[in-house]
Design a protein that fits this description.
Chain lengths: 112, 114
């Protein structure tokens, strides 16, 4: 199994631009999570899905952030418009047996 | 408010010694607690899970304890090696059911010197 796959690995954009992060979870996992990691705030849960349905988006910072999961093998996290304070590493994770999470390698986002 | 606290200062130890990392929490009643390892530029990797009714869990050189009265977990690495150098994160579920909705501490960086 290739594990959780995220793309792009790095994204550099200018303030005001739209950013789309992508994630392919491990096949057979029915939960998918989006986290954001910064030095100041650590690893924060943004939103999670169960069977492609958003369950809890209370961690999404504001309306500029949106996430979708159109099918069991794909999810996107979109920021529109992006701001410098959105700069962080964004991780996608899917849930296996027993509640443990499998993380992707992350997307390093820099908004200039 | 709910908090998960890990030592923010890096832990430096000599190779061969036992490393002990602490995770304290307040205003949670987690059903289970997990520990993850994170290397620079990589995503966290699962190490161990311990349930509320378990006092201790072991896996090779790793040992985790869970004291729901003290609201604390200790993570031990025995016979530490330089390859154990990384950041270690504890995580708690926020619900009574096993949804996998984990909230993470800030992590403690361990440096094992040869």
């Amino acid at each position: 199994d290739a594990g959780v796959i995220q793309s792009p690995r790095h994204e550099v954009t200018e303030m005001g631009q739209e950013v789309t992060l992508r994630c392919k979870p491990i096949s057979g996992h029915d939960y998918l999570f989006w986290y954001r990691q910064t030095m100041m705030r650590g690893l924060e849960l943004l939103i999670y899905f169960n069977n492609n349905v958003p369950i809890d988006d209370s961690g999404m910072p504001e309306d500029r952030f949106s996430a979708k999961m159109p099918n069991a093998s794909f999810s996107t996290l979109k920021i529109q418009p992006s701001e410098p304070r959105d700069s962080a590493v964004y991780f996608c994770a899917s849930r296996g047996r027993g509640g443990k999470l499998f993380f992707g390698s992350g997307t390093q986002l820099s908004v200039l | 408010s709910q908090k998960i606290e890990q030592n923010s200062e890096a832990l430096n130890i000599q190779e061969g010694k036992t490393a002990t990392l602490t995770c304290n929490y307040t205003n949670y009643s987690p059903a289970y607690l997990q520990w993850y390892r994170q290397d620079p530029g990589r995503g966290p990797v699962f190490l161990l899970l311990i349930r509320e009714n378990e006092k201790e869990k072991r896996k090779e050189r790793l040992k985790v304890t869970f004291d729901t009265t003290l609201k604390q977990s200790l993570f031990h690495i025995t016979a530490s090696q330089p390859a154990d150098s990384a950041t270690y994160l504890c995580a708690l579920d926020r619900g009574s059911s096993n949804t996998g909705k984990l909230i993470f501490g800030q992590g403690t960086t361990l440096q094992v010197k040869p």
